[in-house]
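Researcher: I'd like a structural prediction for the single chain below. Treat it as a standalone chain; there are no partners to consider.
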Amino acid sequence: MSFPQGPYQQGPYEPNPYQQGPPPGPYQQGAYRQGPPPGAYPQNPLPPGMVERWYYKDSTPKQRALIPAHELLAHPATAQLAHAEGARLQFDFSDNGAVQRLLYTVHKTSEAASYRAAAFLFPLAILAIVAGVTASSGRTTGAAVSGVLLVLTALWCWRSVRKQRALPYRQTAKARLNAYLAVVEAARRAGTPVPARYPFPYHRTYHSHIRFDPAAVAPEPSDAEPRYTGPTVEPVGQLVQDENERNAFRWSDLLRPF
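Model: Treating it as a single chain, here is the predicted structure.
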């Protein structure tokens, strides 16, 4: 069976050059990574009139377009701030792939936190119902025991949440996200057309104490970065599996609050 060949269509057993990422290797661009060698993408040209676009998922979750670094850091003051924060946090804000991976990590962390909160609310709701029923029926002993168990469970949940939020790699991601939000705000003040409340659909900031730990930086992926060529929004390649597994919710996390 033959298939028509064209600039955007190939056979089912042939790789599509417009759906492939860069070759495996440390080809991420930026000040802290080795740039791509000449001819790194010989079989992956962009069609005329198309530009490279990066996408990420916010907390909705909804897929949104990432503002390219050459647009976000076009103003000298914004570029200087990004360079200073990048040197402090060992992060390259001019690397679209690194920023996309950072937002992906924040998305998975928020998703795991939502699952964890739902798992915590279930036993608290059961104990609250039991305490209310025993108190209304006049069983003071049962109501007192249920109240004590409710308080202890609430303290246990609070301690577990604090421990999860204080993990070093999550603190590192929060610190870098705060710096990226500062860079976005500086670009908005400089006149760059940035959507309202980018990169999240609501105002997001972290008021907790942030401790940046250079040793807690997530390892670089061994596979190629996902690369998106617009206007399509289909993801190409694999996202970082290590960060996906580290940020995923596990029931065993509930058993280690201390």
